[in-house]
Structures are given as C-alpha cells and as structure tokens.
Amino acid sequence: MKKNTLLTVLFLLAVSGLLLHYRIHNFMVADKLHPGNSVFDGTKFFATLFPLIDTILVTALFMSRKTAVYGYLLNGLIVIYGTVFMAHFSLAEMAAKSIPLQAMFLKSTLPDIGIAWADFLVGKTLYDQYMNGPS
Amino acid sequence: MLKYFMRYQPGWWVLHIIIIVLTFYLGHKMTFTF
C-alpha cells in the first residue's frame, strides 16, 4: 500500500514538472524576425521531453519489482541532467540579465533543483522498498 | 587488459558509453538565449 503512495508521489512530481516546463519554457517560441509566427526551440524541447520520459517511462518501470532498478537508474539520470541544465540555464540568465547579487539566490533555479532531488529520493525510497520490503 | 573489461558485463559498457555520448550530445545541443 505504501508503494502505491510513493508511486503516486513520483508520478505527481513528474507530471507537475512536465506541465510547468511546458507552460514556462514551451518549445514553440515567438519568432522575433517574423512577428505572429513561432519557431521550434530544441533546447526547450528537451526541457519538455525529459519530464515526459520521467512521467511515462519511469512511472511504468517503477510499477514492477523486476524493472524498478531501471526506473531508479533512469530517474537518477534525468534528475542529474535536470540539475546540470537548470543550473546552466540559471547561470546563463544571470549573465545575460545582470541580476544583482542579492537576488541571485532566490531568482536562481535552486528551488527547482531541490524539487528534482525530492523526486529522486522518492524513487530511491520506492526502490529500497521493492528490494528490502517496508521498514 | 581484458580482465578489466570483463569485470563488468558488456551491457554495462554499452549503457555507459551511450549515456556518455548522450551527455556530450546534449551539452553540444543546449543553447540558452535570452
């Protein structure tokens, strides 16, 4: 029963990440050269693709004990990618917009990286439960 | 030499090489514009 709760948390975190990325960094961006048109942005597409994989594939892999290890691995990989890319994005934004030093901490993607690691740790707990049983 | 490679199964090596290539590819693809 505990497993279902953890699986639900894992799914909710992933789907929320997907929807937030889709809304905030949609991969179809306004074309500055041709007003009214939009162009495909590959970088932002990855920001939607990884949470999509997290939502569908990772949740599916975590449903069974046999495949949970691959779910754990893929979940970890996605979280590490998320951490690196979100940090890079944040640093690039700081450099581009010259954000004052005091605002850097709260305007960074540090809270988002924290949420990503919460997703990883929920996956870890679920994996540990599959392997060792509830403790 | 071979014993170092045989320490892990071939799938382990394939997976890691794919991931390393994917990571470099993603690093190459990412461009943040503001």
Number of domains of chain A: 1
Note the run of SSEs of chain A as H and E: HEEHHHH
**Chain pair sharing the greatest interface:** A-B, 12 and 8 residues
The major pleated sheet of chain A works out as: 2 strands, antiparallel
* Fraction of residues in H or I helices of chain A: over 70%
- Helix segment tally of chain B: 2
Strand content of chain B: under 5%
The percentage helix of chain B is over 70%
* Low-confidence region ranges of chain B: none
Number of helices of chain A: 5
How would you portray this structure in words?
The complex is a heterodimer of chains A (135) and B (34). Chain A is mainly alpha-helical and 135 residues long. The two termini of chain A are 13 Å apart. The mean pLDDT of chain A is 92. In chain A, a hairpin with a 7-residue loop joins strand 1 (28-30) and strand 2 (38-40). A two-stranded antiparallel sheet of chain A has the order 1-2. In chain A, 76% of the residues lie in helices and 4% in strands. The longest helix of chain A has 30 residues, at 68-97. Chain B is an all-alpha fold and 34 residues long. Helix content of chain B is 71%, strand content 0%. Chain B contains two helices and no strands. Chain B has helices spanning 2-5, 10-29. Chain B is rod-shaped and about 50 Å long. The N and C termini of chain B lie far apart (49 Å). The mean pLDDT of chain B is 91. At the A-B interface, helix 2 and helix 3 of A face helix 2 of B.
